Amino acid sequence: MDAVPRGCVVVGVDGSAQGDEALRWAAEQAVLEERPLVVLHAADVGTALAAAWAGSPGADYGAVRREVEAAGRALVDGAARAARDLSPGVAVRTAVGPLEARQALLAASTRASLLVIGSRGRGPLRSLVLGSVSAAVARHAQCAVVVLRPRPGGDACTPWSGVTLGASADVAGAEAVERAFRHATARRLPLTVLHPTGSAGSATDPGVAASLAGAAERWPAVAVQHREVGSDLAGALAGATASSNLVVLSGPHHVAGERPAGAGGAGGHRRRLHRSAVALAVLEHASGPVCVVPEQRGR
């Protein structure tokens, strides 16, 4: 998408309450990271044309397309004004993609630094569709994705306690560790690292331990605390979403310059499937914001 500059923060909006919450979160994050914000809406003309009334004899398909696109433009223009009111100084662009939501967001992820989306939308049917979209985007996006899961007793923009990260290769590759430290630095929050334990004691992966040590040297201002949580690390991360400002974990591996599905052979495919399953399990049971970070190879 030409309207999506490289390295920006992209937020998907659809007119829902969760979309509005995603807008607020993304506008604040864009200011903290000193990045431009792109407000994106998927003007899915195909779905509108497939509606029963549009398929009736004599339907004006051109009029339907124009109406859908005009409504999308009005939505993003209003959201852009709201973002500027919420976070004065944020540089905002708008984009209306003639695609369904999953395709539009995944296309944006090839240029963005961060995608921010709600986990549900308007109405029972829309909730189901956007739930599927958020899961697909978290699994296949080529940049980090923050999914704002509903938080009991408050919203995702409330300044809850620090950032949480799991110390396991299943949930914390090098780029997830870096994202966690960067987020903690930007929001001036502490970082809690959850360590899985087994019968032999700590099960922290040596590669993750090295990434943590390197990140601690690069971002010494971040206060880091470590906590052992037993063998169910995914469950502990999901539980931590209720009180954390953000829980960060790795998604599947992506290969620079290739389609995500083509990376790593059989072993890489199994690792991607496992990481996808863990990420989706945390997202499904989360009660707060979760950031899924793809681990890039070949860069």
From TrEMBL:
<dbReference type="InterPro" id="IPR006016">
    <property type="entry name" value="UspA"/>
</dbReference>
<comment type="similarity">
    <text>Belongs to the universal stress protein A family.</text>
</comment>
<dbReference type="InterPro" id="IPR006015">
    <property type="entry name" value="Universal_stress_UspA"/>
</dbReference>
<dbReference type="Pfam" id="PF00582">
    <property type="entry name" value="Usp"/>
</dbReference>
<feature type="domain" description="UspA">
    <location>
        <begin position="9"/>
        <end position="149"/>
    </location>
</feature>
<dbReference type="InterPro" id="IPR014729">
    <property type="entry name" value="Rossmann-like_a/b/a_fold"/>
</dbReference>
<protein>
    <submittedName>
        <fullName>Nucleotide-binding universal stress UspA family protein</fullName>
    </submittedName>
</protein>
